[in-house]
Amino acid sequence: MFTKVHVEGKNKGDILIFALSTCGWCRKTKNYLKSEGIAFDYVDVDLLTDDDSDDAMEILDRFNRGRSFPTVILNNELCMVGFNEEKLMEIAQNE
Length: 95
Prior knowledge:
The protein has one domain: 3-Layer(aba) Sandwich (Glutaredoxin). Helices cover about 35% and strands about 20% of the residues. The protein has helices at about 25-35, 50-65, 85-95, and strands at about 5, 15-20, 40-45, 70-75, 80. A five-stranded mixed β-sheet has the order 1-3-2-4-5, with helices on both faces. Strand 2 (about 15-20), helix 1 and strand 3 form a beta-alpha-beta unit. The chain is globular.
């Protein structure tokens, strides 16, 4: 199973971001959550080895068959594809 990177902050639910290390929109999504002080985990899929990459893509496929980045999964049930500041603000303001 692939390793996730954890960013400390306020708990607003289980947030997992599938990202690419070279993607500007992925970086913007991570930076937004960091600036709001929200805890989250992320995986830079392009930096994973073969088996770990396969595992990550299998999970990603369940939420985003198009395999586009960033893909943000909230509480293992809701999915946001791409950078969406409005939806990220909703997460940040959620109690």
